[in-house]
């Protein structure tokens, strides 16, 4: 639990390191190499610890030195169901080990997946593609067992939806499958392009064509890589939104304009100000509230290059301070507005609808999911006791508590926030936030 005394503008500077949603996948890619890999700019977050544990049970020697991770996969070995199951429910990454383990060992076991509870989050695309590659998939009470009695061969495959994880699954499997793979309707998020860069350094042949088509020519062997992870654009946007909601000013060192273009357009439309410093070594983006009223907007989340679903929650908190009616249509996940009930208790005026409001009809419209929000602002937020439901929503609760008058208690920070935000308490204190941990007797 964190105690937050709100009402203080956040002022100062924070550093963002490598993106959680690339680092964890690049760690999995290291399994495919015949020699060690080195990954730099690795954040100290729990998801990295979880993947470290998963690699270690499979015989990979993993060492962290500062923010550089060394991974030696030369002695990869099968792990027992019990050892792997220690990691059940902790993250969604285990599903991505399938291809690399099938290539290295001929079999794989995947425990029940964890990750944030923001929708059904099925893995049907993953398993379907793996079967096409030639994997045999068997489920039992313990988890999912996979084998590849005849090896894995290239496929022609079209995703029903440009899923980030399923695209990564196909990439990590196709790079060493026999023959060529053509993936259509692929996700093309910057983290996926960075994963492609990692795989290319390892010796893979991957062509990104127009119209979401990716072609992968399978190779017989991949070696280790040296790579600096791209910066975390979700964390960067979280600090930007915190600056706006608290009427402060935050320089986010490491934030990259190119990967945040859509967010920057939204930030400016709302009335926020920013300035890009593109120095390659210590550049970043300064975000601030210019002192004029914030403006309402109609937005919808989408796959890249659209507005990221993980930017939605911090933006909604900032929109509670905009002068008028805003709309947020969530099209990626069916259940990503649960956190707004806590914001309502703080005085925010937010209503949820099952219709596709303000934009294009999406997959959830006819299925009665509350996936559109109307935010009427500005609302004076007041302190409350808040229960964090998931990672990104959790950070938005922190932002709301910092923007509110009075003292809030936020529960669940260690369980959720530490999964994806490095040293967030130190960073908050450095920005002048008035936070404290309860004194334990
Ligand atoms: N989907 C299916 N079947 C599948 C896979 C996905 O129906 O087999 C659906 C999902 O249910 C969802 C949509 O496709 O409605 C998109 O899911 P996607 O596969 O793209 O998401 P993911 O790979 O599970 C990653 C990030 C999420 C981020 C999404 C979208 C990681 C570890 N997670 O999830 O990040 O929201 O892409 O960009 O990379 C976070 O960091 O807090 C987080 C949730």
Automatic annotation (TrEMBL):
Binding site for phosphoenolpyruvate: 20-21
InterPro entries in UniProt: Enolpyruvate_Tfrase_dom (IPR001986), Enolpyruvate_Tfrase_sf (IPR036968), MurA_subfamily (IPR050068), RNA3'P_cycl/enolpyr_Trfase_a/b (IPR013792), UDP_GlcNAc_COvinyl_MurA (IPR005750)
Active site (catalytic residues): 116
Record-listed E.C. numbers: 2.5.1.7
Pfam families cross-referenced by the UniProt entry: EPSP_synthase
All copies of domain Enolpyruvate transferase, residue ranges: 5-428
Keywords of the record: Cell cycle, Cell division, Cell shape, Cell wall biogenesis/degradation, Cytoplasm, Peptidoglycan synthesis, Pyruvate, Transferase
Locations listed in the record: Cytoplasm
GO biological process assignments: cell division; cell wall organization; peptidoglycan biosynthetic process; regulation of cell shape; UDP-N-acetylgalactosamine biosynthetic process
Enzyme class: transferase
GO molecular function: UDP-N-acetylglucosamine 1-carboxyvinyltransferase activity
Annotated pathway: Cell wall biogenesis; peptidoglycan biosynthesis
Reaction(s) catalysed by this chain's protein: phosphoenolpyruvate + UDP-N-acetyl-alpha-D-glucosamine = UDP-N-acetyl-3-O-(1-carboxyvinyl)-alpha-D-glucosamine + phosphate
Family statement drawn from the similarity comment of this UniProt entry: Belongs to the EPSP synthase family. MurA subfamily.
Task performed by this protein: Cell wall formation. Adds enolpyruvyl to UDP-N-acetylglucosamine.
Protein name: UDP-N-acetylglucosamine 1-carboxyvinyltransferase
Organism the protein comes from: Glycomyces albidus
Taxonomic placement: Bacteria, Bacillati, Actinomycetota, Actinomycetes, Glycomycetales
């Amino acid at each position: 639990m964190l105690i937050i005394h709100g009402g203080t503008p956040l002022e100062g500077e924070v550093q963002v390191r490598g993106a959680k949603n690339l680092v964890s996948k690049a760690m999995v890619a290291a399994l495919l190499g015949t020699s060690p890999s080195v990954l730099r700019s690795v954040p100290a977050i729990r998801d990295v610890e979880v993947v470290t544990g998963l690699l270690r049970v499979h015989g990979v020697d993993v060492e962290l030195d500062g923010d550089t991770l060394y991974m030696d996969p030369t002695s990869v070995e099968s792990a027992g169901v019990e050892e792997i199951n220690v990691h059940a429910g902790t993250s969604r990454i285990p599903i991505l080990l399938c291809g690399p383990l099938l290539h290295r060992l001929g079999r794989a076991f995947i425990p029940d997946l964890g990750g944030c509870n923001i929708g059904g989050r099925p893995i049907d695309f993953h398993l379907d593609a793996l079967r096409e590659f030639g994997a045999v998939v068997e489920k039992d009470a313990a988890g999912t067992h996979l084998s590849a009695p005849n090896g894995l061969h290239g496929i022609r495959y079209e995703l029903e939806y440009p899923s980030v994880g399923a695209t990564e699954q196909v990439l990590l499997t196709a790079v060493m499958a026999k023959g060529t793979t053509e993936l259509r309707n692929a996700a093309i998020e910057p983290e996926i392009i960075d994963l492609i860069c990692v795989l290319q350094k390892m010796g893979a042949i991957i062509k990104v064509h127009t119209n979401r088509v990716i072609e992968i020519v399978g190779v017989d062997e991949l070696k280790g890589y040296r790579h600096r992870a791209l910066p975390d654009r979700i964390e960067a946007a979280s600090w930007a939104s915190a600056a706006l909601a608290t009427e402060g000013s935050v320089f986010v060192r490491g934030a990259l304009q190119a990967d945040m273009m859509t967010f920057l357009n939204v930030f400016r439309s709302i009335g926020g100000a920013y300035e890009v410093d593109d120095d390659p070594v210590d550049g970043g983006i300064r975000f601030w509230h210019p002192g004029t009223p914030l403006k309402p907007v109609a937005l919808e989340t989408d796959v890249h290059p659209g507005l990221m679903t993980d930017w939605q929650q911090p933006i909604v908190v900032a929109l509670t301070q905009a002068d008028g009616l805003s709309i947020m249509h969530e099209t990626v996940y069916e259940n990503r507005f649960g956190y707004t009930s806590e914001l309502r208790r703080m005085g925010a005026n937010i209503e949820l609808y099952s219709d596709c409001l303000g934009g294009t009809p999406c997959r959830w419209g006819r299925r009665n999911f509350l996936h559109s929000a109307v935010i009427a602002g500005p609302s004076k937020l007041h302190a409350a006791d808040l229960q964090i439901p998931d990672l990104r929503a959790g950070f938005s609760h922190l932002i709301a508590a910092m923007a509110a008058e009075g003292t809030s208690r936020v529960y669940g920070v260690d369980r959720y926030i530490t999964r994806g935000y490095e040293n967030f308490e130190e960073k908050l204190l450095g920005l002048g936030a008035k936070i404290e941990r309860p004194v334990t007797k």
